[in-house]
Amino acid sequence: MTRLSRVAFIGNSLPRRCGIATFTNDLQRAIAAAFPDLKTQIVAMNDRGHSYDYPPVVGFEVNDDKTDDYIRAAAFLNAGQFDVACLQHEFGIYGDEAGKRIMALLGPLTMPVVTTLHTILAEPTPLQRGVMDRIIASSAKLVVMAEKGRELLREVYQAPAEKIELIPHGIPDVAYVEPDQAKIKFGFGGKAVILTFGLLSPNKGVEVMIDAMPSVLKRCPEAVYVVLGATHPNLVRDHGEVYRESLIERVRALGVEDHVVFLDQFVDQSTLLEFIAMCDVYVTPYLNEAQMTSGTLAYSFGLGKAVVSTPYWHARELLADGRGLLVPFGDAGATGDAVAGLLTDDARREAMRKRAYSSSRSMTWERTAERYVEVFNSARKADRPKIVLLPERSAIEREAQPQPEMQLSHFLSMCDDTGLFQHAVHNVPDRLHGYCVDDNARALLLACALNAPGEQRLPEALSSRFAAFVQHAWNPDTKMFRNFMSFDRRWLEDRGSEDSHGRTLWCLGECARSDASPSRRRWAAALFMEALPTVVSFRSPRAWGFALLGLEAYCAVAERNPTAIRIQSVLADRLMSLMSLTETDDWVWFEDGLAYDNARLSQALIVTGRSTGAPSYVKAGLRSLRWLMTIQTTPEGLFRPVGSDSFGDRRKPPKAFDQQPLEAAATISACLAAWRAEGKSEWKADAARAFAWFLGRNDLSAPLVDVDTGSCRDGLHPDRPNENRGGESVVSYLLSLAEIRQLARINGDRIKPAPLLPCPPKLAEISQTSRGRFVTSQISQPAGAVSTP
After folding, report:
1. What is the tens place of the pLDDT at every residue in 380-418?
2. Which keywords describe this protein according to UniProt (predicted)?
3. Exposed, middle or buried by CB within 10 Å (0-12, 13-18, 19+), for 577?
4. How is residue 88 annotated by DSSP?
5. Lowest-confidence range among 243-247, 688-692, 742-746?
6. 712: alpha, beta or left, given left = phi > 0 and alpha = psi -120 to 50?
7. pLDDT at 170 over 80
8. b/e string for 362-394 if b means 16 or more Cβ within 10 A?
9. Superfamily covering domain 180-362
10. Are 26 and 15 in contact (CB under 8 A)?
11. Averaged pLDDT score across all residues of the chain
12. Are 565 and 555 a contacting pair, CB within 8 Å?
């Protein structure tokens, strides 16, 4: 690969007044300073016909309402032979509704795109979601500035984990100084200065701090609140200075006009740093939790200021562990108490300042520039290796192959005394990203699968550890499971996604049926029923599918529970309704697009139909799975899972990459469920072909697994395997291996499809006594069933 020599930045640029413009220029300058031989240019966005006196670094201007400008910008970048384009994305700066015109620029580009996402919405509109999905698909890398961003990209947008990079907002590298000299320069000598800066707009919550000033002044009479910043240009354009005037009137009404100063200025960086230097306490009283990034917060924090903030996403992460104070949204009383407490306690304020300054040294613009260049290099296109297809063998030959042994050494290395780590760097567990209930639920599923005949069980302590993680994830206040936990065992949210809740229900249902411990089976059944009703309010089809898989397992061993039976019917009927609304002759699916874990939807209907005696469910599941398998099979007969680059496409053939182990595992389970329902050998052949994908029968002829350690790479890029081997991937492989090994132990010629049973035989009945304890009683078993110890 040639050396990185030319990088283009796409976004707003100074002297346009906005945070994205400031960030774009700061990042460009930092990279130019750190890498003098690297040529950088900016493609700048002009808003609604405005023009700006740009510096020479701006090589092309785009009027945000003119699609032709976007197309010409792409031609400019292609002609300039830039190695990477770095897009700064924020809704509202690329014209049109949801900024969809940006795709006219991204689509024709011949270089990889690295996108910095300044806003990531947890609940986007359909149009915003469509734009985000296309940007994610068009980007080689996605940069976020907070862990919450990574979480939303994975859970809401199903972005591939390997695309996401966390690079904190950059900060100037300046010395730690006391505020006295700067106070004197600006005329605030002898005052206790509280500061808020940034473009003024209603979402900043300045009125909350104004309302807090009377209580602050009672404890600190010399306090003054400085509000630095021009009114946001869009607000001025649409409403003039009505908002600023309302704040001034509010100050007068409270009688604090001698202690609140408005500085209507948009200052350059050196002046801004002096203003920050003079403050004793910096306040960000934002009113909206969904603030992914705040440059004003990052700068004040990086200069070693004591910060009081509302708990929006960026602040919650940056100010954790005593690095700042968080107060409730819109609470003037709590804000005043926090600010006054810091102003009147010099030792506490100084300790907080030093914690902030010392912990921010990794955020300097120089370090940020280095990390961006690393990401640029990793995003660049490399020559794709020549694909050599292995000769095709018959399904019988493939099924006759000896299966790999169950090797657990990598899986065990990915576990500690908390649970299973989410990610790995190559095969080294990555502590930085902690844990999630998704992966620990999958690990508990694996523990249950290894109770099958011929397999070696996991150590009891490890199974108990996964169960404990799931139990701890349960939040009885929200009636949902939390998902993400940091390495230091702090939950990063009050509730996880709908899909993570559904997946945990699946794990609990299976645990209630097949865990080795009777006590843990009773625990799983009880928690399953406590968490089940929440799923009725969900809108995610995958959450419904996961829950149905759990219900099939739970209902196989529990007494007929009216609530479970009712919810099982509701969720299955919802999937049937989706399919009836969406299905056409050439699109036999539940949604207009394909995403992740696709085959689980088909599997859920198949197993639900068999367990409830509903042939229509089984037929719909088989029909959708047959269609899915036709588009997941190459002309050469290889299994090709739906690539993550397809996510967001509507009724289009799936893209080939990136391919992920999760899809192969889901397909194997679904095909074996179909085989049990129909008894046709084609389903076993499909399962075997999907499993062979792990071993190297794929588009790159590249093995995903190391059979000696049981590790599994995180997927296939267009040019190479992803060498990281995280928790999701290893469990996906091991679960698939367990299923394939069980299949190899069965003589398929003597197995007939089981009849549909309105009330299936149970291995155990779980009933609750009047005193609330659970009693397990063994009853009749079907022929060939294996008793659970």
Report:
1. 863 322 323 333 333 333 334 457 889 999 999 999 999
2. Transferase
3. exposed
4. E
5. 742-746
6. beta
7. yes
8. ebbbebbbebbbebbeebeeeeeeeeeeeeeee
9. Glycogen Phosphorylase B; (3.40.50.2000)
10. no
11. 88
12. yes
Rounded to 10 degrees, the C-alpha dihedral 676/678/684/690 comes to: -90
> Is the fold of 6-166 the same as that of 406-768?
no
Q: What is the mean pLDDT of residues 556-575?
A: 93
Q: Which helix (H) or strand (E) holds 544?
A: helix 541-555
CA distance 198 to 200: 6
Could you report the per-residue pLDDT of 38-75, keeping only the tens digit for each?
999 999 999 887 889 999 999 999 999 888 889 889 98
CB-side neighbour CA atoms (13 Å) of 726: 25
DSSP code of residue 491 = B
CA distances from 312 to 229, 279, 327, 460 (A): 21, 22, 10, 41
For 751-772, how does the pLDDT look when each residue is reduced to its tens digit (9 = 90+)? 233 333 333 233 233 333 222 2
Indicate the angle between helix axes 661-678 and 599-612, nearest 10 degrees.
Answer: 30
Q: How far apart are CA 246 and CA 261, in angstroms?
A: 14
Residues found in the chain: 789
Per the listing, tokens 């670094």 go with 57
Please list, in sequence order, all residues whose beta carbon lies within 8 angstroms of the beta carbon of residue 307, skipping any fewer than 6 positions away. Answer: 281, 282, 283, 284, 297, 300, 301, 315, 319, 323, 324, 325, 352, 356
Cβ distance 422 to 731 under 8 Å? no
**pLDDT at residue 150 tops 80:** yes
Dig out the tokens for 44 from the structure: 């700048």
Q: Where are the domains of the chain?
A: 6-166, 180-362, 406-768
Q: How many CB atoms lie within 10 A of CB 33?
A: 11
- Whether 510 shows a pLDDT value over 60: the answer reads yes
CATH code given to domain 6-166: 3.40.50.2000
The share of the chain scoring above pLDDT 70, in percent, equals 91
Residue range 568-581, pLDDT digits in tens = 999 999 999 999 99
Residue 39, SS3 per DSSP: strand
Least Cα distance to 111 among 74, 69, 144 occurs for: 74
Place of tokens 């190297």: 696
CATH number of 406-768: 1.50.10.10
Q: How far apart are CA 740 and CA 668, in angstroms?
A: 8
